[in-house]
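Sequence, please.
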């Protein structure tokens, strides 16, 4: 697609032609309230010619068009930020360049559209100015408006599509009411998740069947919300989050993290989150037992979402299309039965402490040359310790981190599983 900038001369938002007459507001006008913005360019009069679409800074399309203009246009103004979690090729922090204030021309389907990035209002230390984008054309008609809509859709598609080797992480901004793109993480191969084959295939095979075209048509034919909900339960650190990451990687899905403990998240915000889920996504509600107990009572004081609000979200009130929901809990018996009943939760899988087979495979993962005898010796050495009788995958991984520079014979004999209790082990760090 040929994206070119046809006019390189810098312009200001106030240079956009306004319908005459246009006069600045007087003091008395402002006292009367006429300082309200009635024009997407900041003026007091509505535009009377051309076509303009305003995109306010409270939805994903705003970020998508900014990224698209930076990538395909020729802007002169930029904003630089440190990309969260990203590293440059030289190992240092990565600087992310975003669209700054000003204008940029975008060539699209034979038209030249103008994208204006501006802000209004007085600067404030907490909220800053109100920012807005305006996609405009001097031409009018349905054809122009439809072309603009297709450009916006293209920008959104590019923004929500991760690199082939990465998975995009989103978090929901309850204050702003939309999903924000946090960063991209490298995909995780299914083979790297060391779980019993039965548990792993139960989730992966079911997801593969659900995401097929036949399943989509079947759900549509019978009027059933096209969603699938999984409940992964078991001790912390045993691989629940790792399995979710691998599923997202296998099927090229985004991962959307939503914290029910967010004090700014209410039922209305949760409903909005479900209605604006990025395409092809996994929605993760972690540690739901820490939010509501089996009496539907709130365990977390900062949680504002009601139990019925959570149920409505899981029931597909937002009409998710092809969305996978994952609930994780350390204690299945602490959840209200209404939350995990059939029809609301489709698949339940227990992700338990490591089996002997998993313990042996962990040695092979870090020491590929390990023999069958060494794997057996390692399993025996782990089980001989008090902690090793019920060991999590996270504890086994930490053992090999401690032996990063050790030869295999030392890693097999010198067992370092740590003294931290299982309750203190957290899986959430993999998303940070």
């Amino acid at each position: 697609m040929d994206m070119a900038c046809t006019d390189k001369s810098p312009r200001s938002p106030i240079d956009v032609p306004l319908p005459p007459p246009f006069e600045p507001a007087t003091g008395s006008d402002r006292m009367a309230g006429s300082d309200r913005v009635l024009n997407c360019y900041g003026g007091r009069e509505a535009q009377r010619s051309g076509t303009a679409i305003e995109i306010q800074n409270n939805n994903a399309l705003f970020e998508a068009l900014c990224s698209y203009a930076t990538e395909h246009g020729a802007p002169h103004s930029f904003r630089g930020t440190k990309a969260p979690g990203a590293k440059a090729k030289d190992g240092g922090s990565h600087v992310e360049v975003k669209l700054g204030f000003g204008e940029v021309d975008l060539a699209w389907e034979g038209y030249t559209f103008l994208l204006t990035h501006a802000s209004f209002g007085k600067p404030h230390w907490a909220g800053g100015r109100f920012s807005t984008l305006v996609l405009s054309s001097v031409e009018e008609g349905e054809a122009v408006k439809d072309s603009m809509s297709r450009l916006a859709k293209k920008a959104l598609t590019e923004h929500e599509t991760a690199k082939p080797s990465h998975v995009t992480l989103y978090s929901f901004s309850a204050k702003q009411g939309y999903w924000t793109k946090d960063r991209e993480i490298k995909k995780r191969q299914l083979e790297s998740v060391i779980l019993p084959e039965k548990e792993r295939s139960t989730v992966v095979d079911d997801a593969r069947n659900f995401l097929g075209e036949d399943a989509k048509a079947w759900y549509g034919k019978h009027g059933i919300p096209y969603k699938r909900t999984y409940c992964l339960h078991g001790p912390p650190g045993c691989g629940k989050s790792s399995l979710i990451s691998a599923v997202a990687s296998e099927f090229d899905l985004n991962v959307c993290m939503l914290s029910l403990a967010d004090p700014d998240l209410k039922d209305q915000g949760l409903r909005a989150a479900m209605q604006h889920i990025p395409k092809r996504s996994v929605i993760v509600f972690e540690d739901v037992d820490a939010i509501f107990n089996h009496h539907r009572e709130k365990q977390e004081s900062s949680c504002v979402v009601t139990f019925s609000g959570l149920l409505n979200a899981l029931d597909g009130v937002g009409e998710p299309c092809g969305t996978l929901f994952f609930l994780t809990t350390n204690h299945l018996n602490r959840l209200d039965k209404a939350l995990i009943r059939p029809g609301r939760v489709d698949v339940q899988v227990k992700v338990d402490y490591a089996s002997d087979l998993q313990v042996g495979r962990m040695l092979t993962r870090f020491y590929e040359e390990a023999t069958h005898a060494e794997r057996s010796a390692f399993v025996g050495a782990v089980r001989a310790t008090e902690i090793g009788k019920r060991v999590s995958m996270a504890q086994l991984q930490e053992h090999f981190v401690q032996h990063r520079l050790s030869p295999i014979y030392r890693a097999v004999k010198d067992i370092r599983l740590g003294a931290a209790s299982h309750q203190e082990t957290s899986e959430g760090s993999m998303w940070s």
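The first helix runs from residue 27 to 31.
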